[in-house]
Design brief:
Layout: E1 2-4, H1 7-19, E2 24-29, H2 35-47, E3 50-55, H3 65-69, H4 75-85, E4 89-91, H5 95-98, H6 112-115, H7 118-122, H8 124-141, E5 145-149, H9 153-165, E6 171-175, H10 203-216, H11 222-235, E7 240-246, E8 259-269, E9 272-282
Parallel strand pairs: 1-4, 2-3, 2-5, 3-4, 5-6
Antiparallel strand pairs: 7-8, 8-9
Bound molecules: pantoate.
The site of pantoate has 10 residues, from strand 2 and helix 8.
Length: 285
Amino acid sequence: MRTLRTAAEVRAALAGPRREGRSIGFVATMGALHAGHVSLIERARAESDEVVVSLFVNPAQFDDPADLERYPRDEAADAAVAAEAGADLLFAPGAGDLYPDGFSTTVHVAGRVTEVLEGRERGSAHFDGVATVVAKLLNVVAPDATYFGQKDAQQLAVVRKLVRDLDLPVLVESSPIVRDADGLALSSRNALLADADRPRALALRRGLLAARSAAEAGERDAGVLVAAATAAMREAGVEPEYLAVVDPDTFEDVSPLAGDVLVAVAARVGGVRLIDNDLLTLGEP
Ligand code: PAF
């Protein structure tokens, strides 16, 4: 695996494979790679001839400078994980490479998909930062397919809309949430949890499972699912920051529930902000 720093280097490295008709799979990351990222890279490896992974902690998507400051950074460790998972190229630009002096363009995806839940909690700049950097990375790598985790369900919906609206010629694939044995969704933030808080972090999953049980028992009122999930989380000692049942593409509220619906939750556990979600496919009750 080669590590490249600039857009020009990436384009030059991919020119040959592209000419030969080799397919390119791309996984965008901010590093701190865990088994969730590995599953995306391995899927890209299985489905593409060339695999590119980007590693860039994107300042534009952080609403809290302290959060940006403490974001884990270990390029050597991440490079080893990416190579082991099957990456051919690691694109690890510096901030000045992606945002040179004078950079002044923002990609803004409008609508509820960026306004609610994560958009409301983290501020409007968050998804602008994500959309801008993803648009740039897709433009540099120009992959055939790009792989995003279902864990960041709202980010996935924003990327899908960005790609649709701008006619970007790339397939957006999503992969299921990877969980620890006890059910905690893998996240780079889990490492920040104090040992004493780790069991309480399972409250998010418990809430989602309570909503799923209610739906499987035939409940089709979103409010009842939210109440069941909230009660299960409170029982585990955690208050949700938000807990909502939404359309997985538009993030509009849905009720009565039918077809594919997303139950999404965020909560702070001992000061660490965690998110999780569950995609339900509902037939007739
Ligand atoms: O999910 C992430 O790690 C980031 O939001 C992404 C997609 C790499 C953009 O910076």
